[in-house]
Write a structure and sequence with these properties.
This protein is mainly alpha-helical and 427 residues long. A hairpin with a 4-residue loop joins strand 5 and strand 6. The longest helix is centred in the middle third of the chain and has 23 residues. The protein is globular, with a radius of gyration of 20 Å.
Length: 427
């Protein structure tokens, strides 16, 4: 039945309500170790030890501040302090007071990288929006500041898209555009819209939702549909596709060659969040195209080389390029299957959802050291060629939450609404 939630079923089997709630708590407990004494959040090794010699990274700090804002909404002990630790770094340590924006990396001696990538800034916006919805001090100030910066420096009204990367002083832009950053911009814009709505700024919320729709329409109907629902990831500054980009570095963690299977799944899910957020004004193509993206990603990526698991990337004929299995791809798969089931009631999504959670329990969930293995090889053995260690809990935590939540523009809004309605219990 449309509207049903696969993660609401009572039980302890992977993907069912009790198991999901316990896994949320287990992931939040492990990720407490990502707290960095310099400020913000850093990487953890396979057994959870924080890597304090590495720089504090903006995308990780934004993601983990978002995660612990969700933890605060859920009532997980200590979440407020951890989220506020992240917010403090975004207000101070990582902020470029001279030129505006935020440094992507800060080491003990100061900024280790001074470029201004939108990908990283999108997670500042996400953290601020989720923190605002969680009622955390100074989160709304950060949200207003981040929105003003994105509006002034990154948003291109003429293109209906975002600029990828600036230099420190916002004088020279990188001659590259990518839909990974765009995708997280859609996520961040929807979260910001929910936070603005909650603060009584309905017009502001509508502005950012419409910008999310413009980006989604260009990527999904303009880029993905003509390529058989395989999304070209890389472009020049005029948004001409670069199909051979990084062909000599196909396993790049952020800009790999070819079509990234997990991004097809993630864009599919974001289409459905956007459809829910727009309400009666939502275009029908968002749901239909979500199905196309999902079906192609599953056909290209799942168990295509003799073993279960999603390959990382495929070429333009759908043949595997990088066969490593990334934990975040599986996390997006279960979220998207659950969301498509909630919209359609199609039993095929239920079947996929359960099979993928069973796979996660067998191969990805690390019961010995905690959290999830972030990377497996083509034989489903732990690997570290692309993602050494356990960098963050963002994808995995959301995978344990979204199947239990109503469909909303943002995860934080969905958690808040579900708690208010008594549909989920605090941790």
């Amino acid at each position: 039945m449309p509207g049903a939630r696969l993660g609401a079923a009572p039980g302890d089997r992977p993907g069912q309500a009790h198991w999901l709630a316990a896994e949320t708590e287990r992931l939040l407990e492990f990720a407490e170790g990502s707290w960095h004494p310099l400020g913000g959040f850093g990487r953890q090794d396979d057994c959870g030890k924080r890597v304090i010699t590495a720089p504090v990274e903006l995308w990780l700090t934004g993601r983990m501040t978002h995660v612990y804002a969700l933890g605060e909404l859920l009532g997980y002990p200590g979440s407020a302090e951890l989220a506020e630790h992240g917010l403090a770094a975004l207000h101070g340590l990582m902020r470029d007071e001279e030129h505006g924006g935020w440094y992507p990396e800060v080491a003990w001696g100061g900024p280790a990288n001074t470029d201004k990538p939108f990908y990283q800034h999108a997670f500042v916006l996400l953290a601020a929006a989720s923190g605002t919805l969680a009622g955390l001090p100074h989160a709304r100030e950060l949200l207003d500041s981040a929105l003003a910066l994105v509006d002034e420096r990154f948003w291109s009204e003429a293109e209906g898209m975002v600029i990828e990367t600036w230099d420190r002083g916002f004088t020279t832009a990188e001659p590259y555009r990518g839909v990974n950053a765009t995708m997280h911009g859609v996520e961040a814009f929807l979260a910001a819209a929910d936070a603005l709505d909650a603060g009584g700024d309905a017009a502001g919320g509508e502005l950012w939702r419409r910008r999310a729709l413009r980006m989604t329409e260009r990527v999904v109907t303009g880029f993905a549909a003509p390529h058989g629902w395989r999304i070209p990831e890389h472009y020049d500054e005029r948004w001409h596709p670069l199909p051979d980009y990084n062909i000599d570095h196909p396993d790049h963690p952020f800009r790999p060659y070819g079509s990234t299977v997990g991004h097809g799944l993630e864009w599919s899910r974001l289409c459905l969040h956007l459809h829910a957020a727009l309400g009666a004004s939502a275009p029908d193509w968002l749901v239909e195209d979500a199905r196309g993206l999902f079906d192609t990603a599953v056909r290209d990526g799942w168990a295509v080389d003799g073993a279960d698991g999603f390959v990382y990337t495929v070429d333009w004929d759908g043949k595997p390029v990088v066969r490593q299995r990334m934990h975040w791809v599986l996390a997006e798969a279960v979220c998207t299957a659950a969301t498509l089931y909630a919209v359609s009631g199609d039993e095929e999504y239920r079947r996929r959802y359960q099979a993928w959670w069973d796979y996660a329990e067998t191969y990805l969930v690390d019961r010995e050291c905690g959290s999830w293995h972030h990377e497996l090889d083509g034989h489903n053995r732990p690997a570290a060629t692309v993602w050494p260690g356990k960098s963050d809990a963002y994808h995995a935590v959301q995978a344990t939450l979204l199947p239990r939540l109503p469909l909303r523009g943002s995860v934080a809004r969905a958690v808040s609404d579900a708690l208010a309605a008594g549909e989920i219990a605090p941790l």
